[in-house]
Write a structure and sequence with these properties.
The chain is mainly β and 122 residues long. It is built from no helices and 10 strands.
């Protein structure tokens, strides 16, 4: 029922801004309790939570990425977005969007997109 789909360029040049969009279907991103999250996985490495935006539009960011990360939403399109500025080759990763069940449901990423590979060439 709930589906998430990442979209955006597969290649971003160093120093530029990575921009991805997550389109949500089956539920509204304004539905109470849920957070809408971005997670990434560099090649050969583990998952890294980047941040999220809650049902009211409030953002949350990983401290390690906060200075470069902006998460926003367009409720009319039922979409939320990720912008990561000043990218380097270390930002090459598969980027996922996912739903978090939120505080009232003990958290947990229950629905995920398929992921999209973004490459930053050196």
């Amino acid at each position: 029922q709930v589906q998430l789909q990442e979209s955006g360029p597969g290649l971003v040049l160093a120093s530029q801004t990575l921009s991805l969009t997550c389109t949500v279907s089956g539920t509204s991103i304004t539905t109470s309790s849920y957070y809408w999250s971005w997670i990434r996985q560099p090649p050969g490495k583990g998952l890294e939570w980047m941040g999220a935006i809650d049902y009211g539009g409030g953002p949350y960011y990983s401290p390690s990425l906060k200075s470069r990360t902006s998460i926003s939403r367009d409720t009319s399109k039922n979409q939320f977005t990720l912008q990561l500025s000043s990218v380097t080759p270390e930002d090459t990763a598969v980027y996922y969007c996912a739903r978090d069940r939120g505080r009232d449901n003990n958290y947990g990423l229950d629905y995920w997109g398929k992921g999209t590979l973004v490459t930053v060439p050196s």
